[in-house]
Design a protein that fits this description.
5 domains; 5-stranded antiparallel beta sheet; alpha+beta; single chain; 25 strands; 7 helices; OB fold (Dihydrolipoamide Acetyltransferase, E2P); disordered C terminus
């Protein structure tokens, strides 16, 4: 190819590029002339002066915005050259378009208020006085009303803090002549909060350790500001030690590091405890089943008491493990929060991190000397503990209770809790720890009136338990055969001979 041909091709290409450039430039001019007051624009910052941000809208006119419009409450501008600025075209002059976050008096007339209402353009206003149900607000020279519920995201205890404040509002109601104007700052704040939350969520992930500030506290936890979005730290995630109220360990404004446990939508679960060493792990090398340890009572519940073995390590004393000598209805009968007691460790479950404790295990067992406490066929004075469908429980001595079976109770008797009664022991089952009682004055020929199928039903599902071997007692005790040989006596033996593990809620199981 000759040099002349090459030169001709090069000139054609340059001409085509020039025409394309001029076409695009003309389009940009046309697009720019279409921009009008109230339009939403988003443009990059090309320079920053002492007072203004200069923006490039892509046409022959630049736009500018006052720095104060886009600074924070402290007057600090967090933007730099190249950052994108989003706002509204509030005016146009010889210098170009004026961009602002909201309409101000400087660039507005009454029609602008109507435009702001129709196009949802924010307007700047100053709260100047309270009125019934809200505030009077100066909006671009016109009086507007802002309800209490629309002045902020969260209600303030003292509404007077808003008086004198200049805020951006959105017009939510406007009559044709602008005589009735209702505005809301809350709607703008909510929209801005959603944008900030979305941006914050993009940089947060489960497992991250982040810095936060304690903003507010409730009975169930503390809300932590993570920079544009709040997370909740439940009271159980503050410390390995039991925390009753967040206020006991945290302060408003306190800065701390927390771990993100879960993100569900815009809800974030946080933990301070996750960054601390688990004291239970260290305690496993020091605590063993069977150990005796002094501990402090932390909390009392109807099912037992929680005790602190070491800082952050708790164990439970079940109510059934509190006393051998008495029936405990509630731990408060023998324990008090804050006091120290000596217990024995019954079980340690590393998987569930649960430790079971016992007071009863360190108390003397009356069954170890039951032969000294009880004499067969000898009368004693006891106290009725309770009356059930299958008999009456009577306290013989501390920690020793016997059962007078229902089938042996005389029809004329009506036992009540606390009554003193004179009875005798007719049989002892040391293996099952069960004692059977009877009247001291019952004759061998006495016949008990049959109670139709009552004891038979109880025998099928005994909630207590009888003694085996026809209540023969131990090797030194006499046999109680031959007393009251009626039908009811046979039913009583059938019930007594049942060898069934008692139900957990049966008080006879601990006898």
């Amino acid at each position: 190819m000759s040099d002349k041909v090459r030169e001709t091709g090069s000139k054609a290409a340059m001409k085509e590029l020039k025409e394309e450039y001029l076409r695009m430039l003309e389009e940009s001019f046309q697009n720019t002339t279409e921009i009008k007051k109230g339009d939403v624009v988003e443009a990059p910052i090309v320079s920053i002066s002492d007072q203004y941000l200069i923006l490039n809208l892509g046409g022959k006119f630049d736009a500018y915005a006052e720095i104060g419009e886009f600074s924070d409450e402290k007057g600090v501008l967090h933007l730099a050259v190249g950052d994108m600025v989003k706002g509204y075209v509030v005016d146009k002059n010889d210098q170009g378009f004026v961009v602002g976050k909201s309409l101000t008096k400087q660039y507005v007339d009454k029609q602008s208020i109507l435009d702001a209402f129709e196009k949802k353009i924010p307007v700047q206003g100053k709260i100047y006085s309270p009125t019934k149900g809200g505030f009077n607000v100066d909006i671009l020279g016109a009086r507007a009303f802002c309800p209490f519920s629309q002045v902020s995201l969260r209600p303030a205890e003292d509404s007077s803090v808003f008086i004198g404040k200049t805020l951006d509002f959105v017009v939510i109601e406007c009559s044709e002549n602008c005589r009735r104007i209702v505005v809301s700052h809350r709607q703008l704040a909510e929209a801005q909060e959603q944008e900030t939350k979305a941006a914050a969520l993009e940089r947060l992930h489960v497992g991250d350790v982040v810095k936060g500030t304690v903003m507010r506290m409730t009975g169930f936890g503390a809300f932590i500001d993570l920079g544009g979005i709040e997370g909740l730290m439940h009271v159980s995630e503050i410390s390995w030690q039991h925390v009753v109220k967040p206020q006991d360990d945290l302060k408003i404004g306190q800065e701390l590091e927390v771990k993100i446990l879960e993100i569900k939508g815009d809800k974030i679960a946080l933990s301070l405890k996750a960054l601390q060493e688990n004291p239970f792990t260290a305690a496993l090398s020091e605590l063993h089943e069977g150990d005796t340890i002094n501990c402090r009572i932390l909390r009392l519940h109807n099912f037992g008491a929680f005790a602190e073995l070491k800082p952050g390590v708790e164990g439970l004393i079940p109510i059934s493990e509190m006393s051998r000598n008495r029936n405990i209805a509630h731990p408060r009968e023998i324990l008090k929060e804050g006091t120290f007691v000596t217990v024995q460790i019954l079980r340690i479950d590393p998987d569930t991190r649960k430790i079971s404790l016992s007071l009863k295990a360190l108390q003397e067992d009356p069954w170890d000397k039951i032969d000294e406490i009880i004499q067969l066929e000898t009368g004693f004075e006891g106290i009725v503990e309770s009356s059930t469908n299958f008999g009456v429980f009577v306290s013989i001595a501390d920690g020793v209770t016997g059962l007078l079976p229902r089938s042996r109770i005389r029809k004329t008797d009506d036992f009540k809790s606390g009554d003193k009664v004179t009875l005798m022991v007719t049989a002892i089952d040391k293996e099952a720890r069960r004692i059977t009682l009877d009247y001291t004055d019952r004759s061998p020929d006495e016949v008990i009136e049959a109670r139709p199928r009552f004891e038979e039903n109880q025998a099928r599902e005994p909630r207590g338990g009888g003694n085996r071997d026809n209540f023969r007692g131990d090797s030194n005790g006499p046999r109680r055969e031959g007393r009251g040989r009626g039908k009811s006596d046979e039913e009583w033996r059938k019930y007594a001979n049942q060898k069934v593990n008692p139900a957990e809620d049966n008080p006879f199981k601990d006898l």
